[in-house]
Design brief:
Length: 281
């Protein structure tokens, strides 16, 4: 296993920033052109959009409540207003896709992958309620009440698509909308790799309906407790990357679409740092 070099430590050093979650100038230069300017007409925009992103990444990284944002960041109403509007109008998905293509090109890969890996992560639900709350479910396998994050990633660990649904939805059922979402942006996927939860004729039929894909099931080894499974370790590593964000340690969100948007924001943060580190090297 490769050890950390001086260059790695220098690229990961955030000590010069107000907060480790803040964007550096190089990182902001990557994402700023992807954010649409204010609409024409009316008063000019007075909000610092960079500070809005810093506030979203602060919530994501530390797990604090929106109302508990530090006073030197924009207020909750401003930050939440921008975040929810960006999620609703597709800005987060558009930024994620643009950065994804840049990361693929940086790695010497084609923009659209041909192989994808599918897996899910069950997040335990936090205590919350209300008539507008999206439902949670009971995952009988993990014995957890919460929601399931269904992820589709490529072979370098970058996110292709994400769907969040109640934890009692079987993997083979939850995979259907996930594959449809990925098909729109990545038409050249031909091979799908999954675990035993995605096997069976129902899953095979869903894959066939989505596109000309083949599915390969990588099963767990019963003879050994800890074995690195081919390709499956890549998606497990991506889940570990996402779980470093304390906001994603549990399911705190009222709506599934917001939970999915935060997963995308976690991957946006990873891709921004990876691209900026390469440009500054």
């Amino acid at each position: 296993m490769a050890s950390w070099t001086v260059e790695h430590r220098r690229a990961a050093d955030r000590r010069g920033l107000r907060s480790p979650s803040d964007l550096t100038d190089a990182e902001w230069a990557l994402v700023a052109p992807l954010i649409r300017p204010a609409k024409r007409g009316g008063l000019p925009r007075t909000v610092d959009v960079r500070e809005v992103l810093n506030a979203i990444f602060h919530v994501l990284s530390t797990g604090c409540q929106w109302a508990a944002l530090p006073k030197d960041l924009p207020p909750k109403s401003t930050v939440w207003g921008y975040f929810s509007r960006w999620e609703w109008e597709g800005t987060i998905e558009r930024i994620h896709h643009a950065l994804y293509v840049a990361v693929r090109e940086q790695a010497g890969r084609e923009a659209s992958p041909t192989t994808a890996i599918i897996d899910s992560q069950t997040a335990k639900a936090a205590q919350k309620g209300g008539s507008t709350l999206d439902p949670s479910g009971y995952d009988a396998g993990k014995k957890v009440v919460g929601r399931k994050r269904h992820l589709l990633i490529d072979t370098i660990g970058m996110l292709l698509a994400v769907i969040v649904h109640p934890a009692d939805v079987q993997d083979r059922d939850g995979a259907v909308p996930l594959l449809r979402q990925a098909r729109r942006l990545f038409p050249f996927i031909a091979r799908l790799i999954g675990d035993a939860g995605h096997q069976g004729p129902k899953m095979a039929a869903a894959v066939a309906r989505t596109g000309h894909w083949t599915i390969e099931i990588v099963r767990r080894c019963d003879r050994h407790r800890f074995v690195v499974l081919p390709k499956r370790w890549i998606v497990e590593r991506t889940i570990a990357w996402i779980s470093r964000n304390r906001r994603l340690a549990r399911d705190f969100e009222r709506h599934c679409r917001i939970a999915a948007a935060l997963v995308r924001m976690a991957m946006i943060r990873i891709m921004i740092r990876r691209l900026a580190a390469t440009l500054s090297a």
